[in-house]
Amino acid sequence: MTSSHGDTTDSTILSLDDGDLHVCQDGPRDAPALLLIHGSASSARSWDQLVPLLTGSHRVIRIDLLGHGRSAKPDDRGYTTPDQARRVGEALDLLGVREAVVAGHSSGGAVATALAERRPGLVTALVLINTGPGLDAFIAPASAAFAPSQWPPTDEQIRLFASPGFSRPGYRPPDELLDEVRCMTLHTLAATMQGTREYLHERPLPDRLAPLGKPLLVIFGADDRRWRSSSASDYRVVPGAEIEFLPGLGHTPILEDPQQTAIPLLAFTTTHTKQPH
């Protein structure tokens, strides 16, 4: 692995036993750690606009999950949600991170939950951003599956696939983020999405989180077209859970309005972060 110190961005490839992971770090390395986990068919770049708002008080760590972004994309590895969570924990170990607040967007929130289940001592608090609590909350229309003969997909196919992820009128997602779909393999995309469905089918997230005793903030764009926003109330079974609705925003508030998203996120993380040992 490579590393650097100070306040500059550090882009690192971590070699794990079952695949290399790409990691970005921003902010002072001696500040409390805040881990950001992207959703399916995305990458660490989905957080680009939010990161500068967080680095004043945090060591911000972003990981490209296996099969995504600049991480390895092997076809012979597991892409279940617990598999992805295990790799995230191993990456934090290599970075010397002993405790972190973990925030996940969309299916990244499922990975964050699985990490808290697997490594409760590592996760001090959780932030779930537009993460559906269970499969019954999914409302996006069934888009046509990408056929192997059509891979990589066309721009039109990618935009159709991504369209429920954004709701702000006139908002156009950055082309480089849509490119992340094209950079995946059909196998890694399908296996990752199947892994999320299986994890939610096995047990809804609120039922998983309730016994963990971790502080929880749920942020939901009120106009989400992928997950029913009213389902955020399902998380109230988690003791002390805080729920924030962002009016006028959709499934991806971290891109649609980073500043509005940062307000509840920073208020929560400031309360629940611990200084590094």
User: Could you give the count of β-strands?
Assistant: 8
* Inertia-based shape: globular
- Provide the CATH architecture: 3-Layer(aba) Sandwich
CATH topology: Rossmann fold
β-strand percent reads 15-25%
Gyration radius, rounded: 17 Å
Report a brief summary of the structure.
This protein has one domain (10-271): Rossmann fold (3-Layer(aba) Sandwich), CATH 3.40.50.1820.
What does this structure look like?
With 277 residues, the chain is of the alpha/beta class. The protein has one domain (10-271): Alpha/Beta hydrolase fold, catalytic domain (Rossmann fold), CATH 3.40.50. It has eight helices and eight strands, in the order ββββαβαβααααββαα. The chain has helices at residues 81-94, 108-118, 155-162, 175-183, 186-202, 205-209, 253-256, 258-272, and strands spanning 10-16, 19-26, 33-37, 59-63, 100-105, 123-129, 216-221, 242-246. The relative contact order is 0.17.
List the SSEs and their pairings:
Layout: E1 10-16, E2 19-26, E3 33-37, E4 59-63, H1 81-94, E5 100-105, H2 108-118, E6 123-129, H3 155-162, H4 175-183, H5 186-202, H6 205-209, E7 216-221, E8 242-246, H7 253-256, H8 258-272
Parallel strand pairs: 3-4, 3-5, 5-6, 6-7, 7-8
Antiparallel strand pairs: 1-2, 2-4
Helix pairs in contact: 1-2, 3-4
